[in-house]
Amino acid sequence: MPRCRAVSSIASIMAAPDVLHQLKSLDDIKAILAQRGITPEDDIIVTCSTGREATLQYVVLKHLLGYPKVRIYEGSWTEYSAQADLPVATGQDPDLV
Questions:
Q1: Which helix H or strand E contains 12, and what residues bound it?
Q2: I need a surface site. Which of 45, 54, 55, 96 has the fewest CB within 10 A?
Q3: DSSP character at residue 25
Q4: How far, in Å, CA of 25 to CA of 37, rounded?
Q5: Which of 65, 62, 81 has its CA nearest to residue 32?
Q6: What is the four-CA torsion angle of 44, 49, 55, 59, rounded to 10 degrees?
Q7: Mean pLDDT, contiguous 10-residue spans, the chain (97 residues)
Q8: Among 37, 41, 73, 36, CA closest to 54
Q9: pLDDT score of 1
Q10: 34 Cβ contact list (under 8 Å, min separation 6)
Q11: Who's near 65: CB < 8 A, 6+ residues apart?
Q12: Catalytic residue set
């Protein structure tokens, strides 16, 4: 059954290490997404601080990799974090260590 995934760390998955404004190869991105259990069948919601940076994640996932169910949470972290009753995970992402 497809899951809904809100993925804010996709930017770090896509960025080439130590290279400003360069993506990893699409094959590398696909492999990392698969390792994290993110599949084309998932509903994926990309976020960032305000919604602007998430557009790159959206374009890569939807238009370059062909993931059909990708959306941008326009309000992103700015809107979400303003609602004190919503859950927030803190700490380092164990998949990025």
A1: helix 10-14
A2: 96
A3: P
A4: 19
A5: 65
A6: -40
A7: 52 65 87 89 83 84 94 81 81 64
A8: 73
A9: 45
A10: none
A11: 26, 29, 30, 33, 40
A12: 48
Q: What are phi and psi of 45, to 5 degrees?
A: -115, 115
How many alpha carbons lie under 13 Å from residue 89 in its C-beta half-sphere?
A: 7
Task: State both tokens at 59.
Answer: 């374009």
Q: Quick check: 62 and 89 in contact, CB under 8 A?
A: no
Cα(38)–Cα(61) distance, rounded to whole angstroms? 11
Let me know how long the chain is. Answer: 97
Amino acid at 54: A
Q: Backbone phi, then psi, for 85, in 5-degree steps?
A: -85, 0
- Enter the pTM of the model: 0.71
Residue 62: the pLDDT is 95
Predicted local confidence at residue 61, as pLDDT: 93
Please give the torsion angle defined by the CA atoms of residues 57, 25, 19 and 58, in that order, rounded to the nearest 10 degrees. Answer: -10
Q: How far apart are CA 66 and CA 87, in angstroms?
A: 30
